[in-house]
């Protein structure tokens, strides 16, 4: 698990920077933030391929609202819009992370879903997660592999 | 010339983003139609003419693979250029979609300019930006 921790932190950082700067018009402000303030919103998806597992993203509600507003070019956003944008963010981040984890490998990403319970990655068995500071707050990316450590490249 | 565009994506947020990016990029859009999956898109295409289609791959009901294949095999639709917009970055996937009939492929995340440039390519036109 430790090897995954080291590898994934850098991969998560690179992916979050790329996706957020390119399409959500915000960026990572600091590499390691603190625990997220509440209330939060979160989305997750199942991926399958040479490695299978779950990937998720969690943000404070205010951060989610700001990210959604940036993405949609709107001054105000509704709760369903925040959920939709968070799912899209989750989808893009997962694609970016997996392409870095296993370059060239094909993955199937199932449809992302909002987690109504906002379960923290801390409560997920074997999950590895990192929180990064954003211009608009903070974001946590987490991942759990069905077979932790298999095929994860060393840094 | 103002182009009629069809955006096929199961995410309303993504459809809205793509539409906004095209408008901001100076792309001359006469109309923007939207569909939530390949099946809805085919229904729309039976009633409306479009100049170009942008489609996601991973969608419910009818995914992008089947949609591109059906458009390419349809006598009245086969000349409408298709640009795939997807989070799948593998070259295998790009080759597969091009083999099915897509004319271009944009990997998410993308810069707004990249989307416009790819659209220029598949439409075979160039236009001035504001």
CATH topology (fold) name of chain A = Chemotaxis protein chec
Question: What is the beta-strand fraction of chain B?
Answer: 15-25%
- State the fourth-level CATH superfamily of chain A: CheC-like
Tell me, rounded to a whole number, the average pLDDT of chain B.
91
What share of residues are in beta strands of chain A? 25-35%
Total number of strands of chain A: 7
Largest sheet of chain A: 7 strands, antiparallel
CATH architecture of chain A: 3-Layer(aba) Sandwich
Written overview of the protein:
- The complex is a heterodimer of chains A (155) and B (130).
- Chain A is α+β, with helices and mostly antiparallel strands and 155 residues long.
- Chain A has helices spanning 2-23, 61-72, 79-101, and strands spanning 28-30, 40-49, 53-60, 107-109, 113-114, 128-134, 137-145.
- In chain A, strands 1, 2, 3, 4, 5, 6 and 7 form a seven-stranded antiparallel β-sheet that branches.
- The longest helix of chain A is centred in the middle third of the chain and has 23 residues, at 79-101.
- Chain A is globular.
- The relative contact order of chain A is 0.27.
- With 130 residues, chain B is an alpha/beta fold.
- Chain B is built from five helices and five strands.
- Chain B has helices at residues 12-24, 38-45, 64-73, 91-100, 112-123, and strands spanning 3-8, 29-35, 52-55, 82-86, 104-107.
- The longest helix of chain B is centred in the N-terminal third of the chain and has 13 residues, at 12-24.
- Residues 126-130 of chain B have low confidence and may be disordered.
- The chains are: A alpha+beta (155), B alpha/beta (130).
- The A-B interface holds A 18-19, 22-23, 68, 71-73, 81, 84-85, 87-88, 91-92, 94-96, 99, 104-109, 111 and B 10-14, 16-17, 20, 58, 60, 87-93, 108-111.
Entry summary:
The complex is a heterodimer of chains A (155) and B (130). Chain A is of the alpha+beta class and 155 residues long.
